[in-house]
Specification:
single chain, about 120 residues, alpha/beta, Transcription Regulator spoIIAA, 5 helices, about 45% helix, globular, STAS_dom, STAS_dom_sf, anti-sigma factor antagonist activity
């Protein structure tokens, strides 16, 4: 997992698997998010995600809900059709909007950010 700060957007790039084993590195991202006052959006890059199990989905839901409590909106791109379906079934899409690619996500979030200022 890697992160990148782009203005008021934190991009979290998930590579490989998201399972219970990734809980500690996944939640180590939070101190970085709270250090910047201008963070509005968390954008998950899931193009490198190869596998996510129920524990990984639970981690993602927990992270997104905690982010929401801290006034950060969550989004994702690069989610395979299979995982899109699962995310809808478990209700994750109620907390996290999905985009087909990074360009679409960044354009939309930058437009929202400009509108909100």
């Amino acid at each position: 997992m890697s992160t990148e700060h782009k203005g008021d957007i934190w991009v979290i790039r998930i590579q490989g698997e998201l399972t219970r084993n990734e809980e500690q590195p996944f939640f180590q991202v939070y101190p970085w998010l709270n250090q910047t006052e201008d963070t509005k959006y968390i954008l998950f890059d899931m193009t490198g995600l190869q596998y996510i199990n129920s524990a990984g989905i639970s981690l993602l839901i927990r992270f997104v809900r905690e982010a929401q409590q801290r006034q950060h909106s969550s989004f994702a791109f690069g989610v395979s059709p299979h995982y899109q379906k699962i995310f809808r079934i478990v209700g994750l899409t109620a907390y996290m909007e999905l985009f087909p690619d990074e360009y679409s996500a960044m354009e939309t979030l930058n437009a929202r950010s400009s509108f909100e200022q």
